[in-house]
Specification:
Blueprint (H helix, E strand, L loop, with lengths): L17 H28 L11 H22 L14 H4 L4 H24 L8 H27 L8 H10 L6 H33 L3 H4 L3 H25 L11 E2 L3 H8 L25 H5 L3 H23 L9 E2 L14 H14 L9 H32 L1 H13 L3 H18 L6
Antiparallel strand pairs: 1-2
C-alpha cells in the first residue's frame, strides 16, 4: 500500500466523503422538481388550494431541509460520523460519569447571552432592516423561541457525552457569571465562531428566496430555443445549489454530525479579506461610482456575441462549466461549508485540482462574463481601468486564499500534508507552485551579491 504524503499518488483522506454532498444535491433537486411539478400533482390528486408552482420563500426554506436531512441521515447512518473522535464526544461517558449540571447551566447562560447580543447587533445595524435582509430577520425572529427551548434538552443531553464539557460557550458563561477557571482565549474563540455564523447565516438566508424562485419558475421550453438564455438559467441553477447547500452549512454546526466549528480564523487579515466581499462593505467598494468598478461600459458576453448562435452556445458552455465547478466546490463540503472556519480537511472532489476551486472558478467567470477588456465606447483608458480593477478583485481573493491556508496550516497536520501534496501533484496548484518557485529563484539570481 502506498503511504500518504508528498510522495504518494493520492492526497490525505478527506474528512468529508464525496457522497454526502451528492446526497444533499439530490435531495435539493428532488424538491425543486416537486415544486415545479406541483400544479400537475395537485390537479391529479385533486388537492385543495392554489395549483401553482411552489416558488415562494417558504418553499425555499423547505429546500434547505430537503438538502440537509439526507446529508445528516447519510452521515449518521452510513458514515457514522457521530463516532469520530473529532466530534469531541465519547458515547460511553453516559454510563461512566455523572455530568456536572452546574457546568451545563453556565454553558446555557453563555449561549443564551451570545444569542441575545447577536439579536441586539441585528437590531442596531440598519442594513438588516432593508431589502433582502428583511426576510432573514423574519426567519430568525420566528426561529428564536424554538431555538431557545430546544437548546435546553440538547445541551443537557450533549453534555453527558462531551469529553470536555467546558467548551467555548462555558468559558463565556463563566466570564459573565464570575466563575473561576474561564480563559480569555476561549472566549475569543467562542465569539469568532458565533460572529461568523451570525453574519453569514443572515446573508445567506436573505438570498435563498430569489435563487430558488428563479429556477422553479424558469420556462425551460422557451429557454431551450436560445443558447444564451439556456446558459443563464443553468448558471442560476448552479448558483441556487451554491446558496442552498452553503446556507445549510452555516446552520447545521452540530457535534454529533462532526460539523461543528472547531475554530474561527484568528488572523485579522483573513477577516478583512473575507468581509469586504460581502454586504454591507461590498456595497461601498463595488459598482457605479464606487472605489472598485470593473464593469464601466461593459455590456457583457451576450452583447458582444449576439447574432452568432454557435459562439453564444460555446461561450455559454464555458460559463456553465465554471459555475458548475464553483457549485461543486460548495456541495463537496456537505454539511461543513462556511467561510473563515476550520471544520475538518477536504481533499477530494474539485479540491484534488486546486486548493481553492471556488475562487478560481469565480474569478475566471468574471473575466469571461463581464469581458472587461471590451467596452462600448472603444476607450483604451476604460479598458485598462476595468482590467486593472478586476485584477484588484482577483488579488483580494488571492489574499483570502492565503489567509485561509495560514489558518488551516496552523490547525491541522492533515492540512499541512494536503498542502504539500497539492504543491507537487495538484492539477492546477502544482504548475503554479513550480512557476512561482522559478520566478523566485530568478529574482534571487538577479539580486546584487555582496562584495567579497
Amino acid at each position: 500500500m502506498v503511504t500518504q504524503g508528498t510522495t504518494s499518488r493520492y492526497p490525505p483522506r478527506s474528512d468529508v466523503s464525496a457522497i454526502v454532498g451528492l446526497v444533499g444535491l439530490g435531495g435539493l433537486l428532488a424538491w425543486v422538481l416537486f415544486a415545479r411539478a406541483y400544479p400537475a400533482i395537485a390537479t391529479s390528486l385533486d388537492l385543495p388550494g392554489p395549483r401553482e408552482v411552489m416558488s415562494g420563500p417558504h418553499a425555499a426554506l423547505v429546500g434547505l431541509l430537503a438538502a440537509a436531512l439526507p446529508m445528516a441521515l447519510y452521515s449518521l447512518v452510513v458514515e457514522k460520523v457521530h463516532r469520530r473522535a473529532s466530534t469531541g464526544l465519547d458515547w460511553t461517558l453516559g454510563r461512566t460519569r455523572d455530568p456536572d449540571r452546574g457546568d451545563t447551566l453556565v454553558k446555557l447562560a453563555g449561549l443564551w447571552a451570545t444569542w441575545l447580543i447577536i439579536a441586539g447587533l441585528y437590531a442596531m445595524c440598519r442594513w438588516y432592516w432593508d431589502g433582502n435582509y428583511l426576510f432573514s430577520m423574519r426567519v430568525l425572529g420566528y426561529a428564536a423561541i424554538p431555538l431557545v427551548l430546544l437548546s435546553l434538552p440538547y445541551v443537557f443531553w450533549i453534555d453527558r457525552y462531551m469529553v470536555n464539557p467546558r467548551d467555548h460557550a462555558w468559558h463565556f458563561g463563566a466570564m459573565l457569571l464570575g466563575r473561576e477557571g474561564w480563559d480569555a482565549a476561549e472566549v475569543k474563540a467562542h465569539w469568532r465562531s458565533w460572529i461568523i455564523k451570525a453574519f453569514f447565516t443572515a446573508f445567506m438566508i436573505s438570498i435563498i428566496p430569489f435563487a430558488f424562485r428563479n429556477v422553479v419558475e424558469a420556462d425551460f421550453g422557451l429557454l431551450a430555443r436560445r443558447p444564451e438564455q439556456l446558459a443563464l438559467i443553468v448558471i442560476e441553477a448552479m448558483f441556487m445549489v451554491d446558496v442552498m447547500i452553503g446556507t445549510v452549512g452555516y446552520i447545521v454546526t452540530m457535534r454529533p454530525l462532526d460539523a461543528h466549528i472547531r475554530s474561527g480564523n484568528p488572523f485579522l487579515g483573513g477577516w478583512v479579506a473575507a468581509l469586504i466581499c460581502y454586504p454591507p462593505i461590498v456595497w461601498g467598494i463595488l459598482g457605479d461610482g464606487k472605489a472598485i468598478n470593473y464593469e464601466l461600459g461593459t455590456p457583457g458576453w451576450i452583447y458582444w456575441l449576439e447574432g452568432n448562435d454557435l459562439a453564444l452556445a460555446a461561450w455559454g458552455a464555458v460559463l456553465v462549466l465554471l459555475t458548475g465547478f464553483y457549485a461543486w466546490a460548495t456541495f463537496a463540503f456537505g454539511l461543513r461549508f462556511s467561510n473563515l472556519t476550520y471544520r475538518g480537511v477536504l481533499t477530494n472532489g474539485p479540491y484534488r485540482f486546486t486548493r481553492h476551486p471556488a475562487y478560481v472558478a469565480k474569478n475566471l467567470f468574471w473575466w469571461c462574463a463581464v469581458m472587461p477588456f471590451l467596452v462600448t465606447d472603444g476607450s483604451l483608458v476604460e479598458t485598462i481601468r476595468n482590467c486593472f480593477f478586476l485584477l484588484v478583485v482577483n488579488a483580494i481573493y488571492y489574499w483570502r486564499a492565503k489567509t485561509e491556508e495560514a489558518h488551516l496550516l496552523r490547525e491541522d497536520a492533515k492540512y499541512r500534508e494536503y498542502h504539500a501534496w497539492m504543491a507537487q501533484h495538484g492539477l492546477l496548484t502544482a504548475p503554479l507552485t513550480r512557476l512561482g518557485k522559478f520566478f523566485w529563484r530568478s529574482g534571487e539570481a538577479k539580486a546584487p551579491q555582496p562584495a567579497e
